[in-house]
Structure formats: C-alpha cells, structure tokens
Amino acid sequence: MTDKQLVIIGSGPAGYTAAIYAARAGLVPLVIAGSVTAGGDLMTTTEVENFPGFPEGVQGPELMESMRAQAERFGAEVLYDDVETLHIEPRRHRITTALGAEYTATAVILATGSAYRELGLAEEKNLSGRGVSWCATCDGFFFKDQEIAVVGGGDSAVEEATFLTRFAKKVSLIHRRGELRASKAMRQRAEADPKLEFVLDSEVTAIHGADKLEGLTIASTADGQTRELPVTGLFVAIGSDPRTALFAGQLDLRPDGYLVVEGRSSRTSAEGVFGAGDVIDPVYRQAITAAGSGCVAATDAEHYLSELSDSELNTKEK
Questions:
Q1: C-alpha closest to that of 116 among 128, 100, 104
Q2: Quick check: helix, strand or coil at residue 107?
Q3: Which of 39, 142, 296, 310 has the smallest number of CB atoms closer than 10 Å to its CB?
Q4: Where among 181, 216, 236 does a domain terminate?
Q5: Containing domain of residue 197, as a range?
Q6: In the chain, how many H helices and how many E strands?
Q7: pLDDT digits over 125-164, tens only?
C-alpha cells in the first residue's frame, strides 16, 4: 500500500491541468490516467481550433501529450492503469487498480469525464473525426457549405442543428419520433431556420464510408421504408453519461447522474474529494472549461491539504 497526498483519477484536459497546478504546488500528484482512455476524448479528435494559444489549431493527441509532459515536468507521476475500486474514507481514501497496485490518498480529484451516447452502428467509431462527431461547437467549422445531419430530438440536438446552419449548406435533423422533445422556444427557432430540415419518425440504420463519411441509410419508424441520405457530416446528439460508476453510492449525484459540487468550487459531498471536468459539467463540455475546472480542483485540494497540515501541526504543538 503506497501513501499519496493527492491522487487524480482520470486524465484529459481536467486531469492533466489539475496535475500541472498540483505539481507546481509541490504536492507530487499521482495521475491514474487510464490504460486505454489516457488523454480523454481529445485523443480521438483531429483538429482542435478553439483552444486558446494555438492560432493555427492543434491536433487533439498533441495537445494532450503536451499537457501530460508539462505535468510530468513539474513532478507529477502518470500511471497508465485503470482504477478498479475506490473506497472513500476521510483522509485515507483507498484505491486499487486493475493491475493490482494499491494506494491511499489524503485527497482525491475525480476527473473521470463522461461518455457520449452512440448510435451503436457499424462504422460509427471508425469514422469518428472523419465525418462523425459528437460536438458541433468543436467540429462545425469543418463542414462549411456541406450537407450534414444531426440525430436527436432534445434541446441539445436542436441547438446543435441550428448552430450548424451557420456553416452547412443544409442540416437534416433526424428524430425517431413524430415530435421533437425540445422546448417550444427551441422548436420555433429551428422551424424558422431555412437551412434546417426535419426528418421525423426516422432513425439512422447504417453509416456509409471508407476513409470518410459518404452518407446514411435512414428508415421510417412508422412503416420501415428506407432511403439514402447523402451527407458528409453526422452529429450524434442523443445525450451523454457521466462516468460515475466508480463512486456511485459514495458521493452525492445530481438526478441526471453528474457529480455534485458546492457552488463554483470543486468540493464534493465527501471530505477531501474534489470533482473536475465533464463529470461535473453536463452543459459546456469543452476542453477549455474542463481545463479551468481542473485548475479549480487542484487549488481546492491544495488548500484542503494545507489546512489539514496546519491543523495537525497545531495539535502536535499543544
């Protein structure tokens, strides 16, 4: 059993930024980055053009590798393993990894992220970053004057579809029911957009393309009839699920499953446990907001550990 002041579970912009700040504060954090998911979603993203400081854009994996290297430069340790169990106990949180390593941590930062829901179709993952996307804000710019599709019927899907009409020649909004679930205001805004077409009572049954997306097969949910939709972009907007299985039942979660933190802080319902990144954020879900919350979590953890150290010192002096 190895004792650590601070363990960061998860990587990506939130985990690595937390590691940079914590390492510079002398906390020597351990980052358990994941065996396959190290670096988070940006490891499967090609061009990132909206992260400050990169006027020509940067490849997602390059950005994550730079953050990791910066964290290690200041003394962070990065472990490419997965956390199997986390037992939350004040001042002695116990962590076991898939490869059998065991740690105790005085403080823990949870940067486990969230996962976009997928359609579950063949070629969906293969064409990720080559026509298939889960983030209009990230990738919409790359589809100027093209015909694209958005799948979903809630506020997020309608918002993404209307946002994408700024770039695309035409946007088809595909929803399996006959009426959108989005709010009335969102629906009215979408209906007034001349570049947006509603494809209701329909679902995507196949995704086509070898090196890039070339089209979709959509089927009627009413009578099963199929037709081809020649689009070069597909945005899946059917929601996301925070990765909270590791600590569900030990920490307070919102009704939608996201980790609860106090106000603008990163403090969770347990002493010495802090949240950062997409696991606490169902709204913005951007690399830059995740990085910002990683800074907040590291700062909160540093203050917690400092106050704990001062308290123990005062107790010894008495």
A1: 128
A2: strand
A3: 310
A4: 236
A5: 122-236
A6: 6, 19
A7: 899 889 999 888 788 999 999 999 999 998 889 989 999 9
Burial of 270 from C-beta contacts in 10 A (0-12 / 13-18 / 19+): middle
Which residue among 81, 82, 135, 193 is the active-site one?
Answer: 135
Task: Render 209-230 in DSSP notation, one character per residue.
Answer: -SSS--EEEEEETTT--EEEE-
Question: Based on the structure, what is the number of domains in the chain?
Answer: 2
- Pair 192, 283 in one domain: no
Average pLDDT over the chain, rounded to whole? 93
Measure the N-to-C terminal CA separation of the chain; round to a whole number of Å. 31
Structure confidence at residue 314 (pLDDT): 57
pLDDT in tens, 198-232: 999 999 999 999 999 999 999 999 999 999 999 99
- Candidate list 41, 139, 281, 300, residue with the active-site label: 139
Tokens for 241, please give them: 């699920």
Which of 236, 256, 273 is the last residue before a domain boundary? 236
Residue in 304, 316, 318 with CA at minimum distance from that of residue 5: 304
Q: Which amino acid is at 5?
A: Q
Quote the percentage of the chain above a pLDDT of 70: 96
Helix (H) or strand (E) holding 312: helix 287-317
pLDDT, tens digit (0-9, with 9 covering 90-100), for 188-199:
989 999 999 999
219-237 burial, b at 16+ Cβ within 10 Å, e below that, comes to: beeeeeeeeebebbbbbbb
Checking if the pLDDT of 316 tops 60, the result is no
CATH number at residue 72: 3.50.50.60
Annotated catalytic residue 295: no
* Percentage above 90 pLDDT, the chain: 76
